[in-house]
Amino acid sequence: MDIPEDLRFQDLTGETFGWLTVLGYAGHNNSGSVWLCQCACGRIKEVSVARVKQGWRTCNGPRCPLLLEKLFEGKFIIRPSGCHEWQGAINAAGYGQVKRDGKMLMVHRLMYEMRVGPIPDWAFVLHYCDNRRCANPEHLFLGTHQDNMDDMVAKGRQARGERHGRYRGKRCEGGGLHGPERQPGPA
Question: How do 32-39 and 97-100 pair as beta strands?
């Protein structure tokens, strides 16, 4: 594509920024010129000059497969079960997580995207193995919220009784607790 006369600027064709190589001019948008770039991972993507100035150095920001491969190197233990167990940071729910470009991303979701493909907006990434640290793509599958709830119930992970967050124990007529938390005093 020819660069319009009124938008003449430095031609970035052939220049490299991190793992992005500029293939040519692709147009103009509100944030400035847009360039067709190829990442070292092989993906081709249109990238605005503003994104390059912000520090984008890969085809998909924090989700570039090449960047993730480097980031994940040496961070897994392969268990006899076949689970690829994450050894890095874990969130409060027990899932592996990594911080990229100021965002906390869940490792099993990133591995699914890298090895299987995009995750639709409606989808959850579930584990066949029920190991929250596992990121083996062969142990992961897509499902709806309802599929996730059904999977939880089938595997006995739903909170019931004393494990439930709203459990308050059995109450007597006077409102006091019975059971191991509080024994009734002498009459």
Answer: unpaired
Q: Is residue 37 part of a domain?
A: yes
Classify residue 174: in a domain, yes or no.
Answer: no
Query: How many angstroms separate the CA atoms of 12 and 22, rounded?
Result: 6
Give me the number of domains the chain comprises. 2
Is residue 137 within 8 Å of 83, Cβ to Cβ?
no
Q: Which two tokens mark 114?
A: 């890298």
What's the rounded Cα separation, in Å, for the pair 109 and 128? 14
Give the chain's length.
Answer: 187
> What does the block give as tokens for 85?
């167990």
At 57, list the tokens: 């150095």
CATH number of the domain that residue 99 is part of:
3.90.75
Q: What distance in Å separates the CA atoms of residue 126 and residue 138, rounded to the nearest whole number? A: 11
| Domain limits for position 113 | 68-161
Task: For 46-94, write each residue's pLDDT tens digit.
Answer: 888 777 767 666 676 656 767 777 777 788 999 999 999 999 999 999 9
26 shares a domain with 110: no
- Is residue 137 within 8 A of residue 129, CB to CB? The reply is no
C-alpha distances (whole Å) from 34 to each of 13, 18, 64, 95, 141 are: 11, 17, 19, 37, 36
Does the predicted TM-score (pTM) go above 0.70? no
